[in-house]
Amino acid sequence: MDEQLEDQRVILALLRRYKHKCEWFQREHLFDLWESNTQKGEKNLSMHLYEWLYDQGLDFVIEPSSASGEADLIAAQQSKNPLVADVKIFNPDKGRGIQYIAQGFNQIYLYTQDYNEAFGYLIIFNTSGKDLKFAVANQTQGIPSVTHNNKTLFILTIDIFPHEASASKRGLLET
Predict the structure, then answer these.
(1) DSSP string covering 56-81, please?
(2) Residue ranges of the domains in the chain?
(3) Quick one: how many helices (H) and strands (E) in the chain?
């Protein structure tokens, strides 16, 4: 149990570092990657995440089949850092709103069951100017999580929307 919790902390630290890199250094590039082909944008952003995880030394399989479908990413089962992850886009104006995120949450929950993993990760790229907030009781290292049926699902939002105005000039927060 202690090893599982430590592995989860390592994965969360990696994902937080990735979020920081994207929001601080690659926001415009990633937004352009999504916007240049919104039909394949989610796939393109997923590939960016996979490349980064690979560079960090994580072994994984992309889109393996399971009883519930194809998870975006599964770390090697014998890996020290198990990772069941799915990537989604949040952009209500483009049909990727709350309902789409809820579907993604259900998918990652089912994948954790299929692969008998205690933890799952839903990575959401926010390509809209709206803030995405999850009203959940659990916050781990700033990443919201939900525990259901002994599965803990972490929800990481990466804001890649290119805000034109500085924070002090954006006005009221739209959530």
Answers:
(1) TT--EEES-EETTEE-SEEE-TT-SS
(2) 2-164
(3) 4, 9
Encode pLDDT of 71-88 as tens digits. 565 554 445 445 788 999
The distance from CA 50 to its chain's CA centroid, rounded to whole angstroms, is 11
Residue 40 CB-half CA count within 13 A: 6
- CA–CA separation, 12 and 18 (whole Å): 10
> DSSP strand E in 71-150: where?
73-75, 84-90, 119-126, 138-140, 143-148
Burial annotation 9-28 (CB, 10 A radius, 16+ → b, else e): eebbebbeebbeebbeebbe
How far apart (Å, rounded) are the C-alpha atoms in residues 24 and 3?
32
**How many angstroms separate the CA atoms of 134 and 132, rounded?**
7
Token pair, residue 64, equals: 């393996």
The pLDDT value given to residue 76: 46
Residue with tokens 């483009």, as numbered in its chain:
94
β-partners of residue 14 are none
